[in-house]
Design goal:
The protein is an alpha/beta fold. The chain has a single domain, classed as TIM Barrel, CATH 3.20.20. Helices cover about 25% and strands about 20% of the residues. The strands form 4 sheets. It has a 7-stranded parallel sheet with strand order 1-4-5-6-7-12-13. A 4-stranded antiparallel sheet has the order 8-9-10-11. Strand 8 and strand 9 form a beta hairpin. The longest helix has 18 residues. The chain starts with 11 loop residues before the first strand and ends in a 19-residue tail after the last helix. About 40% of the residues are buried.
């Protein structure tokens, strides 16, 4: 386990422990829960379930990867954790402290700490050092070879979690900050993350952050007030995301994959291109446009129409704000990774060893 991975945006996967609690729409079809239950027999899910630490032999593997990377002069990416969440507060604090010790002694690896709990990043890292979360010296203790990221699959998650992730970036100075937008469940504007609605329930009117450039504005005009997540409102590249990963959903046990409209991926691709941010498209998921997978264009009874607003089924352009995509479930392999005939494999630059 963890020596070889099919995940295109990393070179290795590392699971320091097993188990988690579902906290996001992305968790509805949790592959980690399904994988640990069917392959390892160690599924421990829920707020009261015991987390299970992985074997000592698993913890030794990054040392081998680090030696290989040093020999080859590379900096391999390690996704941590694909079977749990590093910043799950149900995990014993000493395990997390040992993980950060491991990261520090493997400087030739770039660790991708992906979480669905960005609000816990600074707090639990400080806990691993036995320091207060508001200690301004935290950034001097964060390993330079560790990046932080969070899962974002809806606009509401982007509005809530991206500002928290970027504030964490300013507090700890990681290698870089990224978002994993898989499975993408609706159109998301990373250039218009809503920090503070002007009117309750109306996110389009208010203060917005362009999380790809670090600039924020109110109704298109630069804004110079305070953030709504406490403290001053810094601007510039330090506030911006460095990497965006997108992907469609796959079947997991009884959970059937939800389709993604190709325009959702295209929009994020174009947003990243305009801002000069690295963009990586992992996969299209189980579904693909009929026009691509069936040259004859024959519509089958099980084909579905998905509209830009996420509606599945009939309707019109006027009703659903754009053009529908007629899709067929063909499997993740056949659906592939191409977006308009192009594979997007970009990775961000790294800061080097700790």
């Amino acid at each position: 386990m963890a020596d070889v991975t099919s995940i295109s945006w990393t070179d290795h996967t590392f699971a320091p422990w097993f188990g988690c609690t579902k906290v996001s729409p992305a968790c509805d079809g949790c592959y980690a829960e399904h994988l640990t239950a069917t392959r390892f027999g160690k599924a421990k899910w829920g707020p009261h379930a015991e987390r299970v630490r992985s074997a000592a032999s698993t913890w030794k593997k990054p040392l081998t990867w680090n030696r290989a990377a040093a020999r080859d002069g590379t900096s391999s990416f390690v996704f941590c954790s694909h079977l749990s969440d590093v910043f799950d507060n149900q995990v014993p604090p000493e395990w997390r402290a040992e993980l950060f010790d491991l990261i520090r002694i493997t400087p030739n690896l770039t660790w991708l700490l992906l979480t669905k709990r960005p609000q816990n990043i600074v707090k639990l890292f400080a806990q691993s050092l036995a320091r207060p979360a508001d200690d301004p010296d935290l950034r001097n203790h964060w390993p330079r070879n560790a990046a932080v990221g969070c899962t974002v699959v809806t606009q509401a998650e982007a509005d809530r979690d991206v500002p928290i992730l970027l504030k964490s970036k300013l507090q700890i100075s990681p290698a870089f900050a990224f978002v994993s937008m898989e499975p993408l469940l609706e159109a998301v504007g990373l250039t218009r993350v809503c920090l503070r609605p002007r009117v309750a329930g109306s996110p389009r009117a208010g203060i917005h952050l362009n999380s790809l450039t670090g600039r924020y504005f109110e109704s298109g005009v630069p804004y110079h007030g305070d953030w709504d997540i406490n403290g001053p409102a810094p601007t510039g590249p330090g506030l911006a995301l460095d990497w965006v990963i997108t992907g469609g959903e796959t079947d997991q046990g009884k959970h059937m994959a939800r389709p993604s409209h190709p325009d959702w991926f295209r929009s994020l691709r174009d947003q990243c291109a305009a801002a000069g941010v690295a963009y990586h498209h992992k996969q299209n998921g189980e579904w693909a446009p009929v026009a691509i997978v069936d040259p004859d264009g024959i519509v089958r009874g099980d084909d579905i129409m998905i509209w830009p607003n996420g509606h599945i089924g009939g309707g019109t352009h006027h009703q659903h704000g754009g053009y529908g995509s007629l899709q067929r479930k063909v499997g993740v392999g056949r659906a592939g990774r191409e977006l308009d005939g192009v594979i997007h494999d970009a990775r961000p630059a790294t800061q080097g060893a700790a």
